Amino acid sequence: MRNSFLMLVVLLFVFQLYGQNTDQIVTSLSEFDGANVPNTDTLFNSEDGFQDEWSHLTINSDKRINKLLGISKEENKRDAGIAGYRVQIYQGEKNKAYDYKSEFLKSYPNYNVYVLFKTPDFRVRVGDFRSRSEAIKLKKIIGKDFPGSFIVEDKINFPRLKTN
User: Fold this and answer.
1) 82-156 maps to CATH 3.30.70.1070
2) Domain ranges, ordered by start, for the chain
3) Alpha helices for the chain (secondary structure H)
4) Contacts of 104 (CB under 8 A, 6+ apart)
5) Cα-to-chain-centroid distance, residue 87
6) Taking Cα atoms as reference points, which of 125, 60, 119 lies closest to residue 86?
7) Angle at which helices 2-18 and 63-79 pack, to 10 degrees?
8) What is the spatial distance between Cα 11 and Cα 18, in angstroms, rounded to a whole number?
9) Residuewise pLDDT in 10s, the chain (164 residues)
10) CA 54, 56, 60, 61: dihedral to nearest 10 degrees?
11) Rounded CA gap, 125 and 115, in Å?
């Protein structure tokens, strides 16, 4: 969400630059606190506004935008996952949780199984699904063996890339 907002701000800024001449751009940019504005004469060299369309585009931005992008990048590294869905098949005691995990893996070895501890219970969750419909498909498949299962929103692992 934050990345989308930052990209929107940068794009709006670029479109603002596109619609003004260079004198107006330098004047409006120098009003920003701490902004260093380089010469933008290379952007508008021809009579119709652009030389070679986008090839000479220069983006002048506030230094604080780069700082925010760096903070966002660090937060994404720390999260180690993306929003998604899993199917929870058990919640309760530790020993039973690991029994459920091994029972599930015997019948369905192609799915990732996670045992999580959230006070006071252990939870067994299955799969890494980007959409709820994918989780519903698994729930229908395992419904006979695990009738009390249900879908939960969770941080999921990044999908594995297929290599040839």
Assistant:
1) yes
2) 2-78, 82-156
3) 2-18, 22-29, 63-79, 94-107, 132-142
4) 89, 111, 113, 124, 126, 142, 145, 146
5) 21
6) 125
7) 160
8) 10
9) 666 777 777 766 666 655 544 444 444 444 444 444 444 444 444 455 545 667 777 878 888 998 898 888 888 777 778 889 999 999 999 999 999 999 999 999 999 999 999 999 999 999 999 999 999 999 999 999 999 999 999 989 877 777 76
10) 40
11) 6
- Sequence-separated (6 or more) residues with CB below 8 Å from residue 108: 126, 141, 142
CA-based radius of gyration for the chain: 26
How far apart (Å, rounded) are the C-alpha atoms in residues 112 and 137?
15
The model carries a pTM of 0.54
- How far is residue 163's CA from residue 142's CA, in Å, rounded to a whole number? 29
- The structure tokens listed for 11 are 């794009």
Cβ burial of 106 (10 Å; 0-12, 13-18, 19+) is exposed
Continuous segment of H or E residues that includes residue 128 = strand 121-129
Give me the half-sphere count of Cα atoms (radius 13 Å) on the Cβ side of residue 57.
12
Q: 150-156 and 82-92 as β-strands: parallel, antiparallel, unpaired?
A: antiparallel
